[in-house]
What does this fold into?
Amino acid sequence: MHTSVLTVSHLKKDIKKKTIIHDVSFDIKEGEILGFLGPNGSGKTTTLRMIVGLSRPTAGDVEICGYSLKKNFVQAMSQVGCIIEGPDLYGYMSGYKNLELLGSMSQGVTKEDIDSTVKLVGMENRIHDKVDVYSMGMKQRIGLAQALIHKPKLLILDEPTNGLDPQGIHEFREIVKRLARERGLSVLISSHLISEVQLMCDRVSIINKGHIIQNADIKDILATGEAVWTVNEPEKAQQLIKDRFGLETTRAPEGLKALVDMDTLPAINKTLIEAGFEISFVDNKKRTLEDLFLELTEKDKI
It folds into this structure.
C-alpha cells in the first residue's frame, strides 16, 4: 500500500477579507503523478504557493512525508523539489556550475549526486556550456536537475512545458514518468496543456473558483464515453436501460444518449436486441480529460 507523500487538508486563503481558496483537499501517493488543472484565475498558483511555503494559508494544513508545514517547515520543505514560474539560472555560468552552486546550499549533495542527476535529465553532452546558449528545452532540463539533486520525495512543477516545442514536451514528459516509475518520486504538475496531463498523470484534481470540483483517476475518465442509440420505442428502451443497468439516458434528435463505461456498452446493446428493440444506429465517442474539464468548468477557457 502506497503512503501519501503530500496531503493537502482543507486549505483556505483569504485576501482582503475575500476568500479565494475554499476548503481545498487532495493527496499524492508515493510514485504517483497528479495533474492540477484549472482555468486562469481558478486558484492553482495560489494553492501551489501555499504548498511550497511562499504563502501562509488562512486555515488548513499541508503535510509532506508526514511533516506539517505549520509545525515542521524545514523538515517538510527538505523533501520538496520545485520549479515554479520557470527555472532560475545564471546565464553567464555553465549548467554544471549552476548545479554546483545550488548543491552547495543543500545539505549532503555530492558530486556524484550532481553527475547522476545530469545523466538522468540527459544533459551530459552540454552540461559545461554556458546557460545563455541553451535552448528553452535545455534550460528546463537543468531546472529539473536543480529540483532533483537533493533527492526529494516530492517534485512540484508549475507549467513545466511552457515554451517547449513538441519534441521538448515529449522528452520532458518521458523523464518525469521515468522518475515516478523508477525512483518512486511523487509529482504534482500544474499545467494548461490538458492533453499532456492526460498522457503524463495518474490522477487529476480540477479546481475552479477556488474549489476542488473533481478528484479522479485518469484511467476511469478515459474508460467512460458518450453512447448514442437510434432505436424504435425510445421511451421503453430508456426505461429498460435504467432498470437493468441503473443508467440514466437523455433524449436527443439523434436518439438516446448516455455517459457509459465502454466495457458495459456491448451488454447494453445485447439486452436491447434480446428484448426485441430495433436498433438502427449505435455510436460511441470516448471521453477525454478535456471533455470532463470543460463540462466541470462550464466552458471556461483554459
In short: The chain has two domains: 4-220, 224-296. The domain at 224-296 is CATH 3.30.70 (Alpha-Beta Plaits). The chain is about 35% helix and 30% strand. The first helix runs from residue 44 to 51.
